Amino acid sequence: MTPGVDAWQPYAPRELADRLAGLPAPWAVAGGWAVDLFLGRITRAHHDLEITLPAATFGLLTRLFPGWEFHVPRSGTLTPADPVSLAADFQTWALDPVTRTWRFDVFREPHDGDTWICRRDPRIRRPYAEVVLRTPDGIPFVAPEVALLFKAKGPRDTDEHDLAAVLPELGPARRDWLATALAVAHPGHPWRDRLAHSAER
Length: 201
Hints:
single chain; 3-stranded antiparallel beta sheet; 9 helices; 11 strands; 36% helix
């Protein structure tokens, strides 16, 4: 029986990075954990662990987890990963066969070779070499401005927290990139004013 959507026992980023050592794809921790890895400290509790990688490389990841199940969450239901369900949504949850809990969530992203393409608006593109940063001990994570772009669509309390936590640490280039990307993907977004005000301080 497939566990429910709340049956999460997420890996810590270090644990998953060790499991993915040697994966020949530009994967990275995403979401709120990406913000905390950029800051070098944990600023809030994390219910899950999200990672991103080029969609075409998803099969390379699943080979590292023999016996695991992968499911696509959509509209409150979980469907076993197959060509049809994978094509229907970009997320895939990983089910640990021992604990029968969800351990991480994979965002399968569009790309063109070594260039990441934003699934919200394909006009937004950036080399993976700029999208993926690393902690001092080698954990790859999504650049904070890219993580915030995805959080901007329908900001929850956790997303507002992440913006407030990281905004003082964003340099001019990262603020400018996010402001420009928001103008393309979410015209008129209120975060653009916050970015402008933070730059004036």
